[in-house]
Design a protein that fits this description.
Layout lengths: L4 H5 L7 E5 L3 H27 L8 H26 E5 L18 E8 L5 E9 L13 E4 L3 H6 L7 E6 L2 E11 L3 H7 L13
Parallel strand pairs: 1-2, 4-5
Antiparallel strand pairs: 3-4, 3-7, 6-7
Helix pairs in contact: 2-3
Amino acid sequence: MSINRKKIFRPPPPAPTTIYVRPGYNRVLAEEFEALKVKRVALVADKVEAHSQGDLRENFGFKAAKDAIRAVDRKMTALDRFVARNAFIEVDPAAWLTKPTDTLHLGHVTTLEKQDVATKRKHRFTFLVTTYGETAVDEESGIECLPHTSPLATAALGLAAGSETHVKLPAGESILKVLSIRNPTQSELDRLLMPIKPPEIDEEE
């Protein structure tokens, strides 16, 4: 029996996770998949039309349509895997305005101090710990969105104000300290929470 090198060296798929999202995210996922299906139908029609035009060896329209179909197929497969591997729980940001602030949770505004172990340099950030995929910055307050699935948020969630922990982040080992925890204001949420978009996912998963 021949050895399948791809199966040996390809990393295993990520474990299923629970991802918190804003209301409407599941609808956006479904709409994105349907849009890709419609696009594929149009591309197949272009491919058929190009095929009827003669010698395929020099038919650049046929090749372009075939490549475009493959690209759409990869996106549809990646999106399908993303949905199948994860459970999506919708949460209402209105609840973030009044939730307890004893420890850091999704929806809190926090100021974190990160000290790099190797260089001893300290960096201070103020984040809104938010749902999956949020990356906006509030120019008025300087608050950045920190997705709850990010390595930094994963390390900080559950900590109390004033506590610190030693963490391994993609940038290296750090000492992370939670300086403060508070609820966001409605105006901060209005500025930070942008319209929901489909996820940017790896087509090669």
